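Entry:
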Amino acid sequence: MSRHYCLYKNDVVTLVLLLLFCEVSYSESSVQIWERAKTLITEGKVDEAEKVFEDLLINSPNDGNIIMGLGYIKYHKGKMVLKSGDFKKAMDVFGEAKKMFDTSANIGTSEIKSKSHFNKGNCDLVLADFIENSNQPLEGISTSNIYKEAVNSYRKALELNPNFEEAKKNLTEDDGRDWDVRVSTAISILDEITNDPNIPSYTRTQIWNIVTMMEMVKNTNL
């Protein structure tokens, strides 16, 4: 299965391209910080690159590009932690990344908002896929709910950019695991419909019944 977890095929390339193509007009000292971050990322020194971004954020606390960039780095760190098998720590790191993406989605341009939602969805998708393939006991964690969060994020990305092919692919990939994703997507859409105050009460009840049946079908396929 080929998941489009990032905007580009390679995480390091993603981070470098982000730094190369973001439109910035900072002081000379800030430009030097950007250059240092690029070098550290290509060398695989993610922790040091994170510190550089945090320093840059002090100078430009409301720059959506920088905030999203810091989210990318935390996302990349989360994947590295997962590979070591420390799921709890990875959850914390991905949580930090998602906060960064939430912030950049709130203050960035339309393009940044769409990419931020997409990458927030990637955080949840990576976690859910890890759980599905892990033998570790993870009590109290619902894979279905994590997938649903990913679905919601991808839908938001597509609302802002209907031509976002990577987000489309993550929602429609035709394999067994995506059955749960597709059902979660349908349930999410139906839930949204029931929130419409103009919908007749009878119709709302019927939709709730359909959602209940879909939840039962989904659970039998987990």
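The radius of gyration is 19 Å.
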